[in-house]
Amino acid sequence: MNPEAVQPLLPTTVNSIGQPIAYPRDGTPEVTALLVEMAPGEETGWHRHPVPLLGYILTGELTVYQATGEKRVVRAGEVSLESVDVIHNGVNEGAVPCKMIVFVAGLKDVPFTVEV
After folding, report:
1. 81 has pLDDT over 90
2. Do 10 and 79 meet the contact criterion of CB atoms below 8 Å apart?
3. Tens-place pLDDT, residues 53-66
4. Closest by CA position to 101, among listed 42, 29, 38
5. Sorting pLDDT into bands at 50, 70 and 90, what band is 104?
6. Are 103 and 31 spatial neighbours (Cβ–Cβ below 8 Å)?
7. Distance CA 9, CA 23 (A)
8. What pLDDT is stored for residue 3 in this prediction?
9. Residue 25: which pLDDT band, with cuts at 50, 70 and 90?
10. What is residue 111's DSSP assignment?
């Protein structure tokens, strides 16, 4: 493969709010990949993730509100490494559907999203 054909999207050691990345140590590791679509105006609802989760925005954009008061917008072509154990809500405030691929470094039989 041509090395010029590889484009790093997110080299980081911390997530979107500056927490150091920490992988789950107890239980059976399980990686999950999801295709998520959100219509304009749709929300994820307030929730938290007990494990690392990152999303790559294919189309549209997602505004993420943290319970801590922070707000950030993730646009098409960008990657978001979500906060762990911090309550947040994702909202499609754009005029077009938001389509994203979500990758989870989780644990078998443990939910990676906890509604609050």
Report:
1. yes
2. yes
3. 999 999 999 999 99
4. 38
5. very high
6. yes
7. 20
8. 85
9. confident
10. -
pLDDT at 40: 98
Residue type, 90: G
* Tokens of residue 43, six digits: 């929300």
Terminal CA-to-CA distance of the chain, rounded, Å?
A: 45
E strands present in 12-97: 29-38, 47-48, 53-59, 61-66, 71-75, 79-81, 88-91
Q: Are 107 and 75 in contact (CB under 8 A)?
A: no
Half-sphere exposure of 38 (CA within 13 A, CB side): 25
Structure tokens at 105: 């470094």
Residues 6+ apart with CB under 8 A from 102: 32, 33, 34, 35, 36, 53, 54, 55, 56
Place of tokens 């590889």: 6
CA distances from 94 to 13, 44, 60, 84 (A): 29, 14, 7, 25
For the record, the structure tokens of 23 come out as 């992988």
